[in-house]
Amino acid sequence: MLLTNGDIDHVAGLLSLREAQPFTLFATPAIHRVLRASSAFDVLAEDVVARRDVELGASFELVEGVTATIFPVPGKIALYLEKTEEAQTGALVTDIEGEQTIGVEIEAGGRRALYIPGCATMTNALRDRLAGADAVFFDGTLWRDDEMVQAGVGTKTGKRMGHMSMSGDEGSMAALAGLDIGRRIYVHINNTNPVLIDGSPERVTANRAGWEIAEDGMEIVL
Amino acid sequence: MLLTNGDIDHVAGLLSLREAQPFTLFATPAIHRVLRASSAFDVLAEDVVARRDVELGASFELVEGVTATIFPVPGKIALYLEKTEEAQTGALVTDIEGEQTIGVEIEAGGRRALYIPGCATMTNALRDRLAGADAVFFDGTLWRDDEMVQAGVGTKTGKRMGHMSMSGDEGSMAALAGLDIGRRIYVHINNTNPVLIDGSPERVTANRAGWEIAEDGMEIVL
Fold it and tell me: Looking at this predicted complex, what is its ipTM?
């Protein structure tokens, strides 16, 4: 198991693997600290689940024959740590690069895939890394930045949450257009995002731009 | 929302109600302390979710027209706090009565129901409380004490986990036999419990003893 973020939607599933299921939990030291700040995650007992630190830029064997390399991605710290962050630093930064939001490059059998479920903004370094990949799984949280506000389900924009949107001049479809990528697949899709609706104009637009929309149980063969 | 226990299966669902869903969270001071020891639960922001302490024995209005009274039930502390408990006290007690495992008596419209999803052993006081209830929802974790060991999915007995079994001389079917109870319904059923299998001998036995087996989406009208 490799965590790319310490926020609830990335870590709560660990609680369903509690007690007697052995596995190795890879994460940055910062994300491991987030877990340790919640005693509930102690259900992952030390003698069953090994917690291993991975440094940014490091490559390691995720499972046999599969190499993973983690790298920082613009984002923010976990929601439930925001108050502490604001108190300590005076402000909340939503597109900082650090150990709290990471991407993963996965290599096996001569193929290369990238998994980036959260990304606040595109950088040249990230674009370079994505170029030539056999598959890219990318942050598909929102279609447009004010989507949750418009839907009346929240007051936060995508930018505030540390997510770039799919559409628009600064969106991920535009940012990755023209890059040589085998398959581009949106993941981490919010329930307000209209691409979830089969046949919606937004879904059609995303598909035409070469993007697939991930779904439960999806399996990818490269 | 009323918590009767601080263990993962009782509290993890709170994480799905995060951010913007307003409600009041009732619990004993001890269970509230358990939540506060996990910063992940800070997603239930203070200005949206009010956390209210309820003392053992106290009655309060759960929702309009519905009165709840909480009382201690023999049980143990949350799994992930066991090590701390053992270190502090030298031993783990699995049938202590305190603020960590509670039952709830719910009264509305002249009807009375009891909800007791975890119970390590039957006491005379508890039996007296159950007598005459219109409905009892009771700890149905295991059919027999060594069921998880026999199934090869764990090393713990029901007793070790703070749960009395359904069957046997000391089981809950025997303990409540003969009491005047409108409906008796098992809840909190472990996935090793054969009563979950429709038509199993154990299900038939439980049904013949007057017990119903709860299922997802069940609605009760008294």
Answer: 0.85
